[in-house]
Amino acid sequence: MRLWIVLALLAVPAFSQRPKPPGIGLIERLNNMSSGERRKMLDKMPPERRKALETRIDHLNQIAPELREKLKKDYEQFQQLPAERQEAARQTLRQIGDLPADRRPMVRGAINNLRNQPTDLQGRRMASRAFQNRFSDDERKLIKDALNILPSPEISQQQ
Amino acid sequence: MNCILKTHEQEELLLGYCCAALEPETARTYERHIQSCQYCRSMLELQQLVDESMNDWKAPEVSENFDRKLFARIRSEEARPQAWWQILFPASWGWKPAIPLALAALALVVFMFRSPDLSTLGQQGEGLKSDEIELVERALDDIEALHALHHTDAEAAQKEVL
Predict the structure, then answer these.
(1) Would the pTM count as exceeding 0.90?
(2) What angle do the packed helices A65-79 and A83-97 form, to 10 degrees?
(3) Any CB–CB contact under 8 A between A97 and chain B?
């Protein structure tokens, strides 16, 4: 009897895998179409908006395949966050995007470096005098928020 | 002799005494005990009442061809073709395997009727609907934001290694 129950429970995950995030599925479909098919799919859009969308998809396609695959995994991981956390992450990323052009790469670089480090080391580095001097209060808050909200790369790799 | 109803030892002596199956010496010993023990005496009287009732009971007579009818019925049951579910689930299995099978069936139903995968929408060749287009644009927003975060200028990122 126990064996039967275990077998039944083992069968459940096979049927309950998360579906692919819908947006990326549609993008992949659009990517696999010919230009004529794609135009037909997007024919309900105003021409300017359609052109902008196609340009964005083309830019995405220009990313190196291995980077694109990593980005896809990150996005899938991002999609698994609760809706409110996703929204908070979007807001933080938007604020980072609004930083002055010379500060933006510094802040993004700090987030990327710190995300790959253990939490205790992150804390020590963020408390260091060099870190305090390098970033303003607002920038430090953005970095801290991004580290708290975004899924860590380790988790992304595990899944 | 200790009372066997109190000690619960050698309780079979009571039944043996009732049906005269005890050795004479044992029977005499027990008989002496009964004379002095009201519990055993009461129990003996009750047992004798049961025995007498059983003797008075007459089993109903069965019809002369009872055995023939019974075996004919057994043969006809054995010869009858089995239903598909009897082949799949022999009676010897019992009902227990039904539980995990029901759980697995339930999981399958949940899987089939869960919200449809939106990536399969727009496959009818009618073009993307407005909500699907928004979905694509929103996904692109998120992907571009994540890409911008990762695709930091390597030199700038290196400077942040404190």
Answers:
(1) no
(2) 130
(3) yes
